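Appendix B, record 7
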Amino acid sequence: MTATLVTGGGRPRGPQGGSTQHTPGDPARESLETRAPTRKLDPQRIAAGVSLGVIAVLALIALARIDISIPGMFESVGNAQRFFERVGGLSFPEPAKLLQLTVLTVGLVLTGTVFAAILSVPIAYLAAANTTPSHTARAIARFIGVFTRALPDVVLAMVFVLLFSLGALPGILAIGIHSIGMISKMFADAIEQIDEGPRLAIRAAGGTKLQEFTVGILPQVTPSWVATVLHRNDINLRGSVILGYVGVAGLGLEMSYAFKSLNYGLGLGIALVIFVLCVAMEMISGAVRVTMLGENAGKGVFVRLFSRRGSRPGARASVAGGAAVGAGSALAGEASVAPVFASPVFASPEAALRRPWTGARVRGVFFGWLAFAVVVAGVVVSEINWGDFFTFWAKLPPVLASFWPPNFGSYGFERIFFAMIETVEIALAAALITFVVSMVLGSFAARNVAPNRAVSGGARLLLVGIRGIPELILAIVLIVITGLGAQAGTIALAVGGVGLLGKLIADSLEEVPRGPERALIAVGSSRTQMFFGATLPQGSQALIGHTFYLIDTNIRAATLLGIVGGGGVGYYLLNAGQGSNYQLVGSIVIMILVTVLLVEGLAMWMRKALR
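Structure tokens (predicted):
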């Protein structure tokens, strides 16, 4: 009796291991082909792929309509040279005043970010699928997140300037409410990715909901939340510049006064200070993430969870964009830095009750009190007039009534509508340029793709420098070179986006499982073949999610750049605000909200369809 063995490759072999050949029409071969799994065509995946292609085509059309001319920009460099000759040189405020403005700016940004983080905790708890008490509560919490994320912080600042005294408080509230949307979303994503074992054990032992959260959930999500808040604080610092144009105190307001009075030397000097401050804050946040969360804390900044891998305590599993992927330099044979939040292992319950003061515990307590002290200092230097919270209620009805009913005034609907279309075109064109450049820089910044550590380190450093440039300042410089219009706004958004998207791409590529990469290298593939055959396909879903996040961000940022002449609907928004035409402001805000919600809905559908 003859037996037939089938190897993992699917080729039949004889009893002595020899290959059994099949001729066309052989029933055995046809049986194998029939049994081979085939992927069914999913109409939603096809529709999502077509939609992705349509968006790419629209971005190309937008880029062509904006007509960015690189030779023309080089020819316009003479404009910048003549401009800087007229300026003469950079000037700065008095050292004491500059220090006071810098401290005030950092304080209001930090206070606004912490305010958002605190409010985001209950919203995230209700929005997470595994902790929400009902579908209704989850829907309401998710809507609050999307709504606050879609509201431009500059419009919120306009409203709060009317309600409160001039100073830092309007900026704190605008930054805080606008940040709730993104922070609560990331908090909720982290809660949904927890290990349910500790929480269910506490419930089985009769623990309350509060005990489930504080003991079973909070220790698992704290690392992710810390990384999210630090990342958001960096974004808020860059965004605080534009709030000065609507009356929020700090470096942004001082810079706006300088440019409006044609004191360009002072304005550019303050812009340089803001750039240095943003880069310094980025580096400090990165150092804090590494110290508190471990060596690779920068990866998966939106969602990062920690667990044990194998028998090594402190090894990590990273979740980014909702997909669990392998991370950690330990896979690449690198040493890792023990994070402050690493879970200790105790021999017995008695040992757990008598925790020794290890170095990790000392660092944890120190950083906890340091963070508390920094937050208190941020509130103190912001010089909040707490009495405003008791007096603004009388102003609230007339201020809200001034925004209603919405109308388009003397401009008319058609002009505002086409200005909104121009804003979307700027966002799409900038996203296309950003994606192309970020794929190159982000790939070289990923240590599993770059040829050596020097290249990846240099690319990371370049991305940090780019990320530190506020888009508003870059737009002002480009407007000097190229003139007013969509071209300056598009380039400013594209350059600013490279810092963010390049980092996210590098993090996503570093987090892919190493198995397929090693398999290709083992059979003699080049690094380029490994990249296109293993690394890029595994990271493609995360790249799509990051790109849609960039488009969503660009639409809001393009609106703000229009305030300084970068094209789009922002020009009309600023004019309406400064002219107290709040009904027009309301109309423009509704258009922005509808656009952002449409992009958000499209992104959610595409991520679900391509999963």
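Remarks on this record: The longest strand covers residues 318-320. The radius of gyration is 27 Å.
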